Structures are given as C-alpha cells and as structure tokens.
Amino acid sequence: MKGVNTALASAVAPGAVSHADHDGIAKISAAGNLQQQTEKASSPLASSDGVRASAQEAVSSDSNTATDSAGNRVIPKLDARETVSASAAMSDSLASHRLADVVLNRVGDHEAEFVMDDAEFETKVQLEGVYNLFNAAAALAVVRAVTEEMKNANTTLPRARDERLMRALSHVTPAFGRGEVINVDGAPVELLLVKNPMGFRMSLSSFTPAGHDTMIVINDEYADGRDMSWLWDVDFTSLCGTGVKMVSGVRAWDMALRLEYEGVNVAETDTNLEEAVRKFVTANPGTPKHIYCTYTAMLKVRSELGKYAEVADAGVGK
Questions:
Q1: What is the pTM for the complete model shown?
Q2: N or C: which end of the chain has fewer CB within 10 A?
Q3: Vertex 26, ends 229 and 112: CA angle to 5°?
Q4: What is the CA radius of gyration of the chain?
Q5: Angle (CA) 210 106 108, round 5°
Q6: Neighbours of 180 (CB within 10 A)
Q7: Would you state the pLDDT for residue 180?
Q8: Alpha carbon distances (Å) from 242 to 210, 211, 262
Q9: Which residues contact 299 (CB under 8 A, 6 or more apart)?
Q10: What are the pLDDT digits (tens) for 179-226?
Q11: Is 13 helix (H, G, I), strand (E, B) or coil?
C-alpha cells in the first residue's frame, strides 16, 4: 500500500496524454506509442499536406507505383477525394485503439469517479481543485502501466488493483501551498499557488468565491517570472460578484489595475505583505478564505500565517 500510495503522490507520466471535453471529462493515457499516434492525428500543426504525405507514402509502397526514366519511383499527387479518404482511414485506425486507460468521469465535493477497464470507481479525495484530479488520473495510469508490465517479472511489487488504487488515492494530501488548508482561529485559509494563465483560470474555476473572502498576492521575483503581463490573459469575471478583499505583493498595483479593468471591486491594496496578511486573516472571523499567490509570495504568506496558526514544516520553512 505504501508503495502504491507513494507512486500516486509523486508519479509523473512522461507519455501521458490529458485533455478535457466540454463536459469536463479528463482522458489520460500512459501509452507512449499511442500518444505519438494521437498527437500526429490531432496536432493543430497537422494539415491536409501531412495527410497527403502519409497517403503518398502508402502509395509509394505499392508494387504498381510508376517509375521515371532513371528508375526512381514517382509518387503521384493526390486529389482532394483521395486526401479525405486517407484522413478517414487514419481516423478509423485510431478509433480502434483505446485512447485512455484512466478517465476522470465526475468531480464532486471531495470525491471523484474514475473509469478503468470499463468500470466506474468512486473515492473520497483530499486533493483540492480539478487540476489535481487530472494529475491523479495521470498517476493512476502510470501505476497501472508499470504494474501491468511487471506482473510477470520476478518482483515483490503486487499488481495494482483498481480498488487498491482508489484507497491509496484517498490518502494523498495536497502539497504545501497547492490547495493547502491552514486553520486560523477556526476558519480555513486555503493557499492556492498560481504561476501562469491556465493555472490561475483553473484555480478560479475550481474554488467558488461565494461565502469566502479572497486575497491575491503577486510577486515578480526570479522564481515567479519577471513579466507579469500574463495576468491580462486570466479571466477574473468569477470574482465580480464578491470582489477581492485584499491585494498585496510586489506587483499589487498591477494586479489591482487588472481587476479594475475586469470590473472586480478591490477593497484594499497593500504592498506590505506582512501587514496585508494580518489584516486579511483577522478580518471577518469564521469566514473561509482563499489566498491566490505566486510562488515566492506563497512562501512568504505561509510564513506569516505561522504567526497565527500551526503550519506544517514542508522543508521550505514555516
């Protein structure tokens, strides 16, 4: 159990493919070869020229392919109908393969449902945010692939069963600052690391602002990235209804300006992070709080929260 749990907590799938359709269903595959086939078929860089090249290669292998006067094979050009036919054949070939070994089928309140081997498995989860459940699906696919390969090997590692994987997943907790919850005077304060537009958008869509106070802390130190223009690529409209109680960090005024253009009310902006954290966590006692922060800001906020609550030692200081 410990081995499987460790793998779930830390595994990264170099060959994993993840995508989400309009229903929010994440499909993950750990099959490297299948990934390559899928990428070739679905890449936005693929064009009819690419399909034509594949079809031409197929034609060139035909024994009746024409040759020129020097004996070199001549590959005939394909018309539009041949290109469409080749594309359809490729699609049919891909459809015959299983594109996802693990499917994230449903996300609930600290629970998730996965589909594996055409069966549904539900489990309680401590992970926060749908993006962490995408990662969990990828880790599940990795563990299943590894244990499948090792089932006939001389090893003490048991083959992972889906029920065991679900139990292991239920014990995985968020990494520090990434959905980590710190209780301050009985109220949960959730630290949410944001580093790029997609990560920020996913965090905002995963955590409802209603019934919570929101704080955003933006730094531009080396580990954060100096260029903060990416903040303009984030959709903050979900915060329009509740507003933001506090904005802080080195780039606090940049963040406040971005929110103003989005029509999000900012109650207060304070570049003094220590003072901003104090005012934010002590206001509205009992109200749950969200703090969105870049990496170095998260470390400093976490350190400040240690003055008001017990903060676990994550090896980066408290």
A1: 0.61
A2: N
A3: 110
A4: 25
A5: 35
A6: 21
A7: 87
A8: 7, 8, 13
A9: 177, 316, 317
A10: 888 999 889 999 999 999 999 999 999 899 999 999 999 999 999 999
A11: coil
